[in-house]
Amino acid sequence: MPERSKSERPMIEIAHVTRSYGAFKALDDASLTIREGEFFSLLGPSGCGKTTLLRMIAGFDNPTSGSIAVDGQEMLGIPANRRPTNMVFQSYAIFPHLNVEQNVGYGLKRLRLDATEEKRRVEEALAQVSLTGLGKRGATELSGGQRQRVALARALVMRPKVLLLDEPLSALDKKLREQMQVELRRLQQAVGITFILVTHDQYEALAMSDRIAVMFGGKIAQVASPKEIYQRPVNRQVADFLGGMNFVKAEIVEENGASMTVDTLGFGRVKTDKPAAFVRNGKAATLGIRPERLRVLWDDAKDKHEVAGTVVDRHYFGEITHLIVDIPGLEKPLSVTETNNFGADDIPVGAPIRLAYDPDALVAMAD
Amino acid sequence: MTAAAEGAPALRPAQSRRTSLLQSESAQGFALISPTFLYALVLLVVPILVVIAHSFWTQNYLTIDRTFTLENYRIALTEPIYRDLLMRSLRISLLVSFFTVVLAYPIAFYISFHGGRHKGLWLFLITIPFWTSYLLRVMSWKVILGYNGVLNSGLLGLGIIDEPSTALLYNTSAVVITLTHAWAAFAILPIFVSLEKIDRTLIEAATDLGDGPLRRFMRVTLPLSVPGIVSAILIVMIPTVGDFVTPRLVGGKDGVMIANAIQAQFGKGANWPLGAALSVTTMAIVTMMAAATVLIIRSAARLAR
Ligand SMILES: Nc1ncnc2c1ncn2[C@@H]1O[C@H](COP(=O)(O)OP(=O)(O)OP(=O)(O)O)[C@@H](O)[C@H]1O
Ligand SMILES: [Mg+2]
């Protein structure tokens, strides 16, 4: 994804927002700033409060406390129909009694544009989502992917400051979903509108976003770029949610500002960055390394940093193989993913194996 | 691959078993509905055929002349008295269905959108008046609207009128009021059901696209509840045309409807063929009126977009 020069101007400022249902907090003191023109994702497991936050930005729900501002304007007390946001609903919410054109033009009617201008904007929106020529189709005569595009066009035609998308792709099959991810990203770059995408699919968030907020149990755990989130998760929960992670127990020997030196049983002494949110817990620390950052060393290949162990299990996934490697001294075996170019799928269970790693790939995180 | 190949032959007997099961299921289905079907045939279709047959015959004092004639239909369609009664019946039933739906819609709307967890309770409460006999309910309207009735005493007591009004009872409006009350629940239910079926995110979507409460009602809720309105109108309109108890009890001279004339022909008038011809004419006209109403409402809803 090419990096664009982006404005640093905040478009959405969420400050200490809490939403309680009785004693239960669906959202707990969430603070977040989303920039103008950004493709921003809210990522987290089911029930973590993503939809709750999105609906409060749209105006369908109000915070119990805290404030939400869009483009510098406080939103409290402004009803949903007067907010500069538009939403693509998870169920798409296509009006069944209207055809495609009428659905897309629904919000324009109120603006009392002249007929040709209205028609032009509807056509333009339909073209943006590649639905040109389908304007007269009935709402019930559309495929899932087409319905999704209509919902998108209907929101885009309003030229909102912020477009909110609640799991817009979750109802599509895998192939269509991947195609739509690319299209959605391209569309966002073309129109330059701030997009906020809710998803529980980590790959979707990683592939599409400029930045991601990872949420758990109503709290925002980390806000960062996809690469940062994946490579430097602040805690075990975030690390786990974004794919496999091997956790290694470590003991802090030396702390030096933003970096520290730790001792591990399997990987020896490692110097690593200290994450901003690192919580000290005596001398104990946890390091993590992604399975694909461990590399199988074939025959007598050598590396500066290697660990040796035994293959205890093997899972075949077509283009990659998942090896489970027992390393003496580690309490849990490491999981290693290796492409099948060199025959990782043929390594027998029980075989001795050596793995190379880059010490930079070992990251410290809070428990 | 091999697993699939092994699985294939094993599947075939299962499939044939399923089709034979289906066959026996549809056979069972027919067996299940046949008593109802026979019942409907005997009690609905046969009487209608008998009535239609009679409408082409002639009454000769106590016997019936079975030569084919259209004379009864000529009388039914051209005699001013029957034409007037028919027109009045149609007008009353249209008024009743209009008022019933207008009154029922807000109630159904309230229950569906603001009933919260108590929707069931609300619907239950609405059915309570129907625990008493229809006759009792009509009689109670007599008590309310009568010369010494509740309404007159109330108005007298408040000093709004000087002497009891006779304009309340024994006329067309008394029939309309009584029937509107009688059919309210039957109109509330279909409207409620169609409102319940509306996906609430559609209303949120309308809000999101800039509509306030009134606009989103006019553009989303109302058009999507048209099926409920249509069935409510039909449910009320069709039977009220042929009602004869209500006009008999509260209608007086001005409130007589076509069904009273039909009843008279089968009873005192002892002219079954004419009664039959009046019935068939009424049925045909009601059917046309119902169809016209459905078409008008549907096209109005379509135009409103
Ligand atoms: N009206 C409500 N009353 C009580 N609790 C609610 C209500 N709405 C939401 N919640 C709770 O708030 C929490 C967050 O809900 P939310 O819909 O935001 O989750 P989510 O992150 O969007 O999950 P999903 O991925 O399943 O859509 C959930 O635990 C849910 O049960
Ligand atoms: Mg959700």
UniProtKB/TrEMBL annotation, chain B:
All copies of domain ABC transmembrane type-1, residue ranges: 86-293
Family: Belongs to the binding-protein-dependent transport system permease family. CysTW subfamily.
Cellular component terms per the entry's GO annotation: plasma membrane
Organism taxonomic ancestry: Bacteria, Pseudomonadati, Pseudomonadota, Alphaproteobacteria, Hyphomicrobiales
Protein name: ABC transporter permease
Classification via PANTHER family: INNER MEMBRANE ABC TRANSPORTER PERMEASE PROTEIN YDCU-RELATED, INNER MEMBRANE ABC TRANSPORTER PERMEASE PROTEIN YDCU-RELATED-RELATED
Subcellular localization: Cell membrane
Pfam families: BPD_transp_1
Chief location of this protein within or outside the cell: membrane
Alphabetized UniProt keyword annotations: Cell membrane, Membrane, Transmembrane, Transmembrane helix, Transport
Keyword set includes Transmembrane helix: yes
